Amino acid sequence: HLLTVQNLLELQAQTEAEEIMGANPVIGLLGGGQLGRMLCEAANPLGIDIAILDERNSPAKQAHETNRHVTGSFKDPARIRELASRSDYLSVEIEHVDTEVLEDIEKNGVDIELADGSTVTHRPPIHPSWRTLRLIQDKYLQKEHFRTSEQKIPIAEHMAIESGEATLDSLEEAADKFGFPFMLKARKGSYDGRGNFKVSSGKDIEPAINALGKLPLYAEKWAPFVKELAVMVIRTENDEGELTGCVAYPAVETIHEDSICTKVFMPPREVSDEVCEEARELACSVVSTLWGRGVFAVEMFLLEDNSLMVNEVAPRPHNSGHYTIEAIPAMSQYKAQIHAVLDLPIPKKLIPRVPAAIMLNILGGAAPNSHHKLTRLARSTYDDDMDVHLHLYGKESKPGRKIGHITLTGFSSLDELEQKAEPFIKLVDEIRQ
Ligand code: ATP
Ligand code: MG
Ligand code: MG
What we know:
- This protein is α+β, with helices and mostly antiparallel strands.
- The chain contains 15 helices and 19 strands.
């Protein structure tokens, strides 16, 4: 077969484009917070380059040096396109990103200019899919997706709340339908419970409107849970978009105080192996209804009758999976994210190498140094029966802000680890007071 001049030019352009991209794969990451930072910590020894789109000196940029970082917002289409032009793949560490531009990049690609002034179209695969991100961004649509999916996913009853003039009537309707208390939630943009308002009685309706009323809202029936559980799932898919596997990490118990995650226990305390197994199966069936590759967190409520209810999904590494760095070191949630995005092998089973782990979030206290006693304790503890792993995120301390975490791993039971962990737990609780 003869190569036409056109073919030759295309081949040359392709080679040059590959040179621009470099030999090691580059993952462009929207968002450079602590999740991105820990992703970089997993990518660094693998020689995988992470190009981060976020502010200068963000936690993730501090952990990974490259000339491909982009300064700006992960909500800015122009900056996202710039990141795409420098990356072989795109991924996220936060779901609140501009999905219109991601959809456009998937469909039409971005133009890369070559040395000779010509351009080639570059289409970095995007994982997880913008479809998943767009759905998850709107908690009401996310709930509707689960309610109407074939998989029969148990969720709390919910209803959309009218905005503007009709908000009050709509909230009264929710109170009639669900009784008190019920949860009023912002549909979009919330994290760490910041868009939630617990409506405990008629007296709370006005404060609720004052707190959230300008945002699109929905109401959710109160879930009378005895515990909260979470399961991380690795979702794989071929390049045609067909699901090829869902592998679940162990179920963990998550403790939320004022709607923010403060502690994680692996395994969950006083929960049977059967329930943990059900939680993993449920998490896999939830994640199978979504699109794209990567790790996904499924947050759940465990009810008194031992049944499970799905709260929400995070389409990325998650606070409840930090423990995997030390408990499943060969395939932490961060390494799994890299493997999934790049379509590298994923283990069939994820078995912890320690029988027990406790993750404690370090939240900023009232004073900038409120957490120093705790970090000092973490740095100075060496114990034959408990390993102490301190992670600070390079963030300025502000009240309630996640600035680090400590993972404690134990070699016998969670019970014993919990006893050993007592001084740490005490200090963590003290910061919050
Ligand atoms: P994040 O994304 O940081 O997990 P978020 O802002 O998206 O948090 P949710 O996960 O919706 O918030 O809720 C935070 C916490 O509030 C839950 O973990 C749970 O403790 C409580 N909560 C949420 N919904 C309900 C409900 N329907 N009934 C009872 N408690 C709830
Ligand atoms: Mg959330
Ligand atoms: Mg949540």
